[in-house]
Specification:
The strands form 2 sheets. An 8-stranded parallel barrel has the order 3-4-5-6-7-8-9-10, surrounded by 4 helices. Strands 1-2 form a two-stranded antiparallel sheet. With 309 residues, it is an alpha/beta fold. The chain has a single domain (5-302), classed as TIM Barrel, CATH 3.20.20. Strand 3 (18-21), helix 1 (36-48) and strand 4 (53-55) form a beta-alpha-beta unit. The chain has 12 helices and 10 strands. Bound molecules: NADP nicotinamide-adenine-dinucleotide phosphate.
């Protein structure tokens, strides 16, 4: 079996519905300990499994460097997405997200050039504005001009927005982004309709948090929970919904990941893992594809409504 591919909006790229989110490669103290050899094995396995989309960021510690070191020689095998607006120097270990961002041209250019060096490439397929700044801030900072200049120079092929409420509707209305990266899962449905709106407007949709940070997989992951929700909220939503009755023998993780894959507008969900076993199991789940349509509808009926907290 192979992982299904979908068009990424109008970019002309066909991306696997399961992508690889490389945040788990950031290293300690924010991420798990992972030595260079294990990171190399994991990244090779990502491509060997057929995944053709990798998402990273300046803000993910060692992630860009590891991708460059272990995968630059296979650069034509993956669609490479990173982010901009992040500061060049790593936040101190004591800092907690959200980290400060600077969307002015000088920082955007310096960050992109650093990403290209770290990633061992001469082009990013997608450069996403990180942390969903307001359109007003981007206008004041001349952010779009900076992105356009990098695109004109061939350093960046497509421009994206890592968008969330409250600014995401305005970002879609701007009509300038090729791709949106948006959080979504069975326990985090706030952006469900906006994902469809972004795609109806012609963009591609990358879904993050699609394994709900492993939320239903085990107790450790439940404590972590989806980014953007108060601690414990993902678990509370799952448990109060009664959706567990619908699993039909699937593991919770399989159900959640296939629920995410069922969003009709999804191009790819960029699931993060530091574990080879988890990667293999996510690939096997993705090969099973979306949930049957009736089951997806029943699950949505039990889970909280898209906009509701
Ligand atoms: N744009 C943004 O602001 C932003 C914010 C956050 C994330 N992202 C991107 O989105 C990607 C994914 O986001 P996310 O980390 O929030 O959500 P996610 O992919 O839903 O969850 C990742 C977490 O789930 C665990 N996991 C993965 N597969 C598993 C499995 N089969 N069984 C048990 N646990 C499993 C991973 O731990 P293990 O390492 O133990 O597998 C990891 O802690 C990131 O890597 C990053 O590329 C972007």
């Amino acid at each position: 079996m192979t992982i299904q591919t979908r068009p990424l909006g109008k970019t002309g790229a066909d991306v696997t519905v399961l992508g690889y989110g490389a945040m788990e490669l950031r290293g300690e103290p924010r991420g798990p300990a992972l030595d260079d050899k294990d990171a190399g094995r994991l990244l090779s396995a990502v491509l060997d499994s057929g995944i053709n989309l990798i998402d990273t960021s300046i803000d993910y510690g060692h992630s860009e460097e590891l991708i460059g070191r272990h995968l630059a020689h296979r650069r034509d095998e993956y669609f490479l997405a990173s982010k901009c607006g992040c500061l060049l120097s790593e936040p101190p270990p004591s800092a907690t997200p959200p980290f400060p961002h600077d969307y002015r041209p000088e920082n955007i250019r310096a960050g992109t050039e650093q990403s290209l060096r770290r990633l061992g490439t001469d082009r990013l397929d997608l450069l996403q504005v990180h942390m969903s700044p307001s359109p007003a801030q981007m206008e004041t900072d001349h952010t779009m001009e900076a992105l356009q200049a990098l695109q004109d120079e061939g350093k960046v092929r497509f421009i994206g927005m890592s968008g969330t409420l409250p600014h995401l509707p305005d970002h879609i209305a701007m009509g300038v982004f090729d791709v949106f990266q948006i959080p979504y899962s069975a326990v985090q449905r706030e952006h469900e309709e906006l994902i469809s709106a972004a795609v109806s407007a012609g963009a591609g949709a990358l879904i993050r948090g699609g394994a709900a940070r492993g939320a239903p997989a085990d107790d450790k992951a439940w404590r972590q929970g989806p980014i953007g929700l108060p601690e414990g909220e993902g678990r509370a939503r799952w448990e109060s919904s009664g959706v567990e009755d619908l699993l039909e023998g699937m593991s919770r993780l399989e159900f959640v990941l296939r629920f995410t894959l069922s969003h009709p507008a999804l191009s790819s969900t960029i699931v993060g893992t530091s574990s080879l076993d988890h990667l293999r199991s996510n690939v096997a789940i993705a090969e099973n594809g979306p949930l049957p349509a009736e089951l997806y509808e029943s699950a949505k009926n039990r889970l909280r409504p898209p906009g509701g907290a």
